[in-house]
Every structure is written in structure tokens, then in C-alpha cells.
Amino acid sequence: MSFLRRLLSSPTGAIGAALLSVIASAALLAPWISPGDPLSIAGPALLAPFSDPALPFGTDRLGRDVLAGLLHGARTSLVVGLAAAAASVLLGSMVGTIAGFAGRLVDEALMRVVDAFQIVPGFLLALAFVSVAGGSLPTVIVAIALSSWAQPARLVRAEVLSIRERDYVAAARVIGMHPIEIAFKEILPNALPPVFALAAVIVAAAILTEAALSFLGLGDPNVVTWGSMIAEGRNVLRAAPFLSVIPGIGLVVAVLGVYLVSEAAGEALGRGGRP
Amino acid sequence: MTTVLGIADLTVTYRRAAASALIGISLEVEAGEILAIIGESGSGKSTLARAIADLLPERTEVAGLLRWPGLEGGPRAGRDIGYVFQDPGSSLNPVLSIGEQVGEGARRHLGLSRRAADAEVLRLLTRVRLPEPERIARAFPHQLSGGQRQRVAIAAAIAAQPHLLIADEVTSSLDVVVQAAIVELLVELVRAENMTLIFVTHDLALASGIADRVAVMAEGRLVELGPVADVIAAPKAAETAALIAAHIDLTTPPLVGEAP
Fold first, then answer.
1. What is the predicted pLDDT for the residue at A274?
2. Does B229 contact A at CB distance below 8 Å?
3. Which pLDDT tens digit goes with each residue over B137-160?
4. Residue A270: pLDDT band with limits 50, 70, 90
5. Is the confidence at residue A35, as pLDDT, over 90?
6. Which of A103, A167, A174 faces B77 most closely, judged by CB atoms?
7. Residue B257: per-residue pLDDT
8. pLDDT digit string (tens) for B94-118?
9. 3-state DSSP call for residue B48?
10. From the CA of A105, how many Å to the nearest CA of chain B?
11. Residue among A15, A1, A109, A62 at smallest CA distance from A228
12. Residue A252: what pLDDT?
């Protein structure tokens, strides 16, 4: 509770949270504000913004409502960002905990796997995965998670290495707890706070990666995303630049919001913590 | 008297250490006694305590024998040995509530249900004389004072009703008044529950007040072992005499010269 208050009391955190809540409410309210399929034709093609009150942001080449695309695209961006970050933090902290706690050969082996994933550029890995497995929302999420789990794994391992030497871990051993129980009940919760700060950065990166994948046409063609809207507008960039600019602004606001919140969260964690 | 634990020729060498931390330690711990292990920093007394509780780091070379006459197949962690650490600030997990940490041993080894364990936690917290046990069971370690935390650590260590309790420098991080209260509590618990206590300390005065026997350690060796009165009155080893001479009380002349 006090952590939330600290987070919102800094200007960074407050602005970030405000931006994020705008995006989140847009995503949540999309089916009510603009019901129906956002990919269906709603009016004349290439209608300029603010010329028709029913279609405030205009229409694209095929006459699809840009506002509807923007709102429904927020859903995709947030879902992909959150799901991919959650998956990568989950996988990363499992691997990191096991590597840090087991030590020796297990540690060595797992960390070489982490190295392998870190060496390959994340976007290239996601690109390769999606082009092999096909473009659907779950594969995009898995692809992004695969390209970003190595960082939390390293962070958790480093934390675990220091925490496993603490007395309360020895105390748990004297009580007779099983090593796996010690690793996940006593050690992992204490290793998580810095990982949460990193998680926000992963969310932002995941939103961008998803947009880049759909820009390249590798996303799910039946789902409207900001990336695919920008790609769609590119063909008529001179005649109707707003088609690319509007979803671009959506992307900037979402990523900026997540970054600001993660900044403030990291600061609040460092400032508060425990006495 | 029955023997709880027999140590024969125990030698412990830490990894990449030039010298052994313990060299040829042999002693027997009798049931129901309070055995004080004293010695200066680095004399190996904590290593001995950790060796008994099987808490030495991996890849530490251990030679010699630990015998547990009353226990078949050696001690079960937590059930037969309780361990109280030096710094209660780090021996309690910051993210788990006090109730959860104290109840862990009871749930695990006495097979209590969650509700029964909660009641047991309140009993234990009252047993170590903490006020308002309901509130403390819900609290987290950082909300308690050092002395309260050490009481919680003791409650957690005796939760599974072990026969042998090891107190490793439990008073070193506390002030003198709280030290006395904690030591008094330990002695009272040990006598009431018929436990055996191994009390590790560098404070000879503290040890002599409560122990039945003292074991004096120096540089990894056991230099003297005997009833507390004999050791204090007529120390046989030079190291013991030095420890007694180094004891500071109010009659000691000031160590720092008074300013002119």
C-alpha cells in the first residue's frame, strides 16, 4: 500500500500511471466505444480526421475506422506486452533460482544456455520464431518471451547467490525444509523486487517488438494492432500521414507510460524497502 | 547421565583454507546439561556449532565422527536440533510473517494442521514472553526490536521440541539488559523442557553464570573442558587464563588514559 503511495507521489510515477490508465481504459472500453469488428468497413476511404463526427480520426484506405483500430490495437499491445513480460519473468526467475541455488554443474549448464539466448539479438530471434511457427497472438507472445527471459534469469541468479548465504536460509535448513522449498519459498520472494523493476522495461520492449513484428506483416492478420496500422498507412504516407501518425502516437504514449512507471517503481523500491 | 552427542576427533577444513578451522575436537555432551563453548573470535567455536548442526558450506572437509547415541540414523534436521543464530535481523526471513516462520517447524515435524499450528504459534510466542502474541504473529521481522526478534528466533527453534538447542552467539548483537533477559529465557526454557543447550559465546562472564560445564577453544583446538567453577577458579590452560584476565568489569582500570 505504502509502495503504491510512494510510486504515485513522484511526478514521474504519477504521469506514467496517468498515461497507462488512459491506454488501459481505452483497451478495456474498446468494445463499448466502438462496437463490432474494427477491421470492417465503416465509411468512405481516406476520410481526413475531424471531418466526420461519427469517425473522429478518419478512415484508412479501405474505409476502416481509425479510432476503432486505435482502441482495439491498445488491447493487443497491452495483452502482448504483459503476457510476454510475465512469461519471460516467470521462466527467467525459475532458471535463475535453480542456477543460483543448485550451483556447480547445474549453474554452469543453465548459464551457458542463458548466454546462448543473450548472444542472439532478441528481435532476430523473435522474427525467426514467428516466421517458422506462424503468426498468431500466442506465438508472438512466446517469441517475445523467448527473446527476453535471459536478462531476468541473470538478475535473479545474482540475487539468489547473495541471499542463499543469509542466516534465514541456514535457519530453514536447520528446520529441515526441502532444498526446493527453500529455493522457492525462502529465497525467490526476496530476490524479486529488482526483477519487478526490470519487468516493466520488458513490457515496454515487448510492446515495441510486437509492433515491429506486425509492421513487418508477421503478426496475426485477423487482429488489428498498432504495428499493422502503421504498416498499412505507409503506402499512403504522403497523401494521408495521419494513418501512420495516430497509431504511432498510441505506441509512444504506451511505451512512455510503462517506462515512467518502471522508473518510479525502481526509485520507490530503492528509497523505501525495509528499514 | 546419558550422552546426547559424542564428538570424536573432529577436524574441519574450509575449502581453500591453509589451516584447519577445527583440529581434533573430542567431547561429549550430556543430556540436560548446559555446555558453554567459549573462545575468542576465530577460535572455531561457531564452526563447531555449525558442524554439529550440519550447516557447514559445501565442499568443506570434515574428518572425525559425530555420534548420536539416542537417535537412530543421526539427527533429523529441525526435529532433533534447534539452532538460534547470532543476528536475529538476518536469521528471520523479511518477507514471511512471524507466525508463518515460527509455525513452520511445528507444522513440519509435529504434523499439525494449519489451525493447530496457529494456536501453537501463539503458545510459543507466549512461552518466550512476547507481549500481544496475536499481533506479533501477524507482524513482519522489521516491525520488531532486536530483542523481540531474538525471542521469535528462539520460539522458531524450539517449535518442533528438539532435544538439543544450539545458541550461537545469540546475545552478541543485543544490548546488555536485553542480553540478560534472553539468556535467562534460554536457561528457563532448557530446564523446563528438559533440553540440552550448547551455548556458544565469547563472553566468559555470561557463560560462567549459566553453564554447567565450559569448553574453552583456541585456534581450532579444545584447550580446556570442565565444570564451570573449576575452570574459572583454576584455569589449566594459558588461553583460559588469558580469557579470564581479559574480562572487563567496572573494577578494571580504564583502558584509555584519562585526558590531563
1. 40
2. no
3. 888 888 888 888 888 888 888 888
4. low
5. no
6. A174
7. 65
8. 888 888 888 888 888 877 788 888 8
9. helix
10. 14
11. A62
12. 92
**In sequence order, what DSSP letters do the residues of A165-206 get, joined into one string?**
TSHHHHHHHHHT--HHHIIIIIIHHHHHHHHHHHHHHHHHHH
Q: What phi-psi label fits residue A243: left (phi over 0), alpha (psi between -120 and 50 degrees) or beta?
A: alpha
Is the pLDDT assigned to residue A272 strictly greater than 60?
no
Cα of B71 vs its chain's centroid, Å:
21
B58 at interface of A, judged by CB pairs closer than 8 A: yes
Backbone dihedral angles phi then psi of residue B151, each to the nearest 5 degrees: -65, -40
Mean pLDDT, rounded, of chain A: 86
Q: What is the DSSP string of B93-161?
A: -TTS-HHHHHHHHHHHHH---HHHHHHHHHHHHHHTT-S-HHHHHHS-GGGS-HHHHHHHHHHHHTTT-
Q: Name the residue of chain B whose CA is nearest to A170's CA.
A: B55
Cβ neighbours of residue A267 closer than 8 Å, sequence gap 6 or more = A10, A12, A13
**Fold topology of B34-45+77-245:** Rossmann fold (3.40.50)
B159 contacts on A by Cβ (under 8 Å) = 175
| Residue in A171, A177, A274 nearest the CB of B85 | A171
Residues of chain B neighbouring A275 (CB-CB closer than 8 A): 142
Cβ <8 Å between A170 and B83:
yes
Sorted by where each begins, the domain ranges of chain A are 2-271
Note whether B166 and B15 are within 8 A (CB).
Answer: no
What is the 3 state secondary structure string of B140-152? Answer: CHHHCCHHHHHHH
Residue partners of A70: CB distance under 8 A and separation at least 6: A26, A57, A226, A229, A246, A247, A250
| Per-residue pLDDT band at A157 (split at 50, 70, 90) | very high
- C-alpha cell of B174? 543485543
Mean pLDDT, to the nearest integer, of A32-36? 82
Whether residue A167 and residue B58 make contact (CB cut-off 8 A), yes or no, is no
> A176 with B76: CB under 8 angstroms?
yes
pLDDT (0 to 100) of residue A115: 92
Span A2-271 CATH architecture: Orthogonal Bundle (1.10)
Q: Please give the C-alpha separations between residue A168 and each of A163, B13, B52, B90, in angstroms, as whole numbers.
A: 9, 24, 18, 6
Which of A174, A185, A190, A195 to probe the B interface (max B CBs under 10 A)? A174
pLDDT interval class at A273 (50, 70, 90): very low
- Enumerate residues 65 to 84 of chain B having a beta carbon within 8 A of any beta carbon in chain A: 76-79, 81-83
Domain ranges of chain B: 34-45+77-245
Average pLDDT over residues A163-183: 83
Report yes or no: B26 at the A interface, CB cutoff 8 Å.
no
| ipTM reported for the complex, 2 dp | 0.73
**Cβ-contact B162, B81 below 8 angstroms:** yes
Check if A172 contacts B (Cβ < 8 Å).
yes
Mean pLDDT of B61-74: 78
